[in-house]
Specification:
mainly alpha, 2 strands
């Protein structure tokens, strides 16, 4: 099994532990792991859909929460199965963690992405909002970057947005080359030339 396959599977397993913990979620760890899964998936030939891997669910009733959790767990299980199958196909020796019959059955039912779209999939509403905010604020280069706090406030309103809920969608936008980012202190987000073109096409400018 390659290092990337091992990292992907470990990230999935750790994310499940974070999300199923009875303690309050470690949001920083959740977003880090989600970003790692989104980044590694395409390199391994494992499509990862942001809308399905994200757990930024907001306020839910108990019934809706358990429904979302059940759907989420089923999805991440298919990702783990796909990574195991990809690792198994890439080596001659028998996999140390072979697919179970259930995993194989679920994996065989995964639909291939539509032709021409690759692994990117559709943008979520939140991701579209992020791009619109960056365009509106003319965040077209590093000197005019916005922090995730500023983006959250613009999208959700003053005092209502949480920067933590925007980290994973921003990471996915960066993976798609629609935004550029600067990490660490004084960091931020701005539209890439491709992201600016995407917005202009969406607005038919």
């Amino acid at each position: 099994m390659s290092a990337d396959h091992s990292r992907f599977i470990a990230a999935v397993d750790q994310l499940v532990k974070v999300i199923t913990s009875t303690s309050p979620w470690n949001l920083e760890e959740r977003d880090r792991l989600t970003g790692e899964i989104l980044a590694l998936g395409p390199r391994l030939g494992v499509p990862v859909e942001y809308d399905r891997i994200s757990t930024a669910w907001g306020s839910l009733s108990s019934n809706e929460y358990y429904k979302r959790m059940s759907q989420w767990l089923a999805y991440v299980r298919t990702l783990r199965a796909a990574a195991l199958k990809a690792a198994k196909a890439g080596r001659d020796e028998k996999a140390k963690n072979p697919l179970t019959d259930t995993e194989q059955k679920v994996l065989d039912n995964i639909k291939a992405p539509p032709e021409g779209r690759g692994n990117k999939g559709e943008l979520s509403d939140r991701q579209r909002d992020i791009l619109q905010v960056l365009f509106k604020k003319e965040a077209f280069d590093m000197d005019h970057r916005l922090t995730t706090d500023e983006i959250a406030t613009e999208v959700e309103g003053q005092g209502r947005g949480s920067a933590e809920d925007f980290k994973a969608p921003v990471a996915d936008l960066a993976r798609r080359k629609l935004v550029d980012t600067k990490e660490g202190r004084g960091g931020g987000v701005w539209l890439s030339p491709q992201g600016k073109k995407h917005i202009k096409q969406a607005r038919k400018l």
